[in-house]
Write a structure and sequence with these properties.
Order of helices and strands: EEHEHEHE
Largest sheet: 5 strands, mixed
Strand content: 25-35%
Strand order of the largest sheet: 1-2-3-4-5
Structural class: alpha/beta
Shape: globular
Number of strands: 5
Helix content: 25-40%
Radius of gyration: 12 Å
Number of helices: 3
Length: 108
């Protein structure tokens, strides 16, 4: 069983909506992750969507597809997507998948 959790951050920024993501973002977790991202995007109202990846332990191609969707969806509503504290293993997947230059990634 894959351990995965996603929830709104209790500490917000006035110009952003932050989701805290933890665990493996794989085929089992991708639907839940995608639902949370869609829900967040629906309430952005021009704010940034920040995905706090501090607790992410793995990102596979299904998670990468959710991030690609999130990037496009944010652009469509006039917002931006930012990854916060993405570990090196996640950064490598983003680089190999071609998304590292499409998504704003804050320094670790």
């Amino acid at each position: 069983m894959t351990l995965f959790a996603v929830f709104p951050s209790p500490i917000g920024e006035w110009d952003a909506f932050t989701l805290v993501v933890e665990g493996d973002i794989d085929a089992a977790a991708a639907p839940t992750f995608a639902d949370a991202v869609r829900a967040a995007i629906s309430v952005l109202a021009g704010r940034r969507l920040i995905l706090d990846f501090t607790g992410v332990t793995n990102l596979d191609s299904t998670g990468l597809r959710v991030l690609a969707f999130a990037q496009v969806a944010c652009q469509q509503v006039g917002s931006t997507l930012t990854l916060r504290r993405a570990p090196p293993s996640v950064r490598r997947v983003l680089e190999n998948g071609g998304l590292a230059h499409e998504i704003d990634i804050e320094p670790f």
